[in-house]
Amino acid sequence: MQTLQILPLIVFAGLVVVGGLKDATSYTIPNWISLALIAAFPVAAVVGGVGWAGAGLSLLVGVGLLVVGMAMFALRWVGGGDAKLLAACALWMGVPGIAPFLLATALAGGALTLGLMSFRSGWLAPMIAGGPAWVRRLGDKKGDIPYGVAIAAGALAALPQSIIGQALLN
What's the rounded Cα separation, in Å, for the pair 34 and 11? Predict the structure, then answer.
């Protein structure tokens, strides 16, 4: 595989990992991460030879997930950064990767929630109290779930099935 083909995959992976880590440590996902994913998509599509039809369908998938994410944000199910990261990742997934992405994200979200419930159960309280601020925030029993972590895990798991992954890895 040539460097030009693997570079978009590295950029995608790096951005979603940074988004997940930022959400875990601060409960925020900066807009620049989602914007960078959106800006990098046309380059990845051209390098992968996706074509206008595939790129257009990916855009529809991304916009569709943005609408769904906005509704989830309005219902206070997810944060605004989560909704934007979900949509930006969906753009990269396209039609072939959207189902694996959503399934992997849901499974990762369930595992994250169970892990945080265990973490917040109280038996780790002494270690949490002595940890850094972000660990104490994660250990707060009334704290939110940093769903960007699950979105990042789902995106990485589904990348080989995505339109960009198929174009660049085959």
Answer: 12
